[in-house]
Amino acid sequence: MTSATASTPTRTTTVRRVRPADAARMRALRLEMLADSPLAFLETVAEAAARPHAEYAARVAAVSVGTGTAQFVADPGGRFVGHAGGIAAPDEPGLTVIYAVYLTPAWRGRGLLGDLVEAVAAWSRRCGRPELMLEVVVGNDRAYRAYQRLGFTDTGVRVPHPRIPALRELQMRRTA
Q: Where is the N-acetyltransferase domain (predicted)?
């Protein structure tokens, strides 16, 4: 991608940065994400469903521009089928933290995970941040292996899960 709003065709879908007009489709995808993978995200389906549309619209508008945070979607032209976000790490100026990575189950294994991560990586580089980091729940071997295939390495750092004290997350990094 050559700009933050550029589109890349990907196996009958497009990976692109979200736009303000995407709020309703982002809300639908967020609810799906939370229902499908409740341990991977920082809120519950009930919390997300209770949020008014205006709040989704404001969040989407905020991440559709700028260098502090961005969200990218896999868009086949109807319902969104994938998402990955990136945010500047507050304590490491050269680092982007990847968050809220998700693919609709029927779309897994088509290369979209790599395309979403690469969209975040390209945005990170344009913003002057040459490194990526993400966290995976310890025991989520499918995600761990997928991120290894994308060049991420386990740093050995383990941190508490932000919502479930009994779980730990492992940190993985790679260059953007």
A: 13-176
Euclidean distance between CA atoms 83 and 127, whole angstroms: 20
Please tell me the distance from the alpha carbon of residue 166 to that of residue 129, in angstroms, as a whole number. 32
Q: How confident is the model at residue 62 (pLDDT cuts 50, 70, 90)?
A: very high
Q: What is the pLDDT of residue 7?
A: 47
The two most distant CA atoms of the chain are separated, in Å, by: 42
12-175 folds as Aminopeptidase (3.40.630)
Candidate from 2-6, 18-22, 86-90, 155-159 with smallest mean pLDDT: 2-6
CB 174 within 8 A of CB 125: no
φ and ψ of 9, to 5 deg = -65, 140
List, as one string, the DSSP characters of 33-75: HHHH-TTSSSS-HHHHHHS-HHHHHHHHHHHTSSSSEEEEEEE
CB-based burial, 7-40: b 16+ in 10 Å, e otherwise: eeebeebbbbbbbeebbebbbebbebbbeebeeb
- Domain extents in the chain: 12-175
Provide the 3-class DSSP secondary structure of residue 163.
coil
**In Å, how far are 17, 97, 113, 124, 129 from 3, measured between CA atoms?**
10, 19, 19, 11, 15
pLDDT > 70 fraction of the chain, expressed in percent and rounded: 94
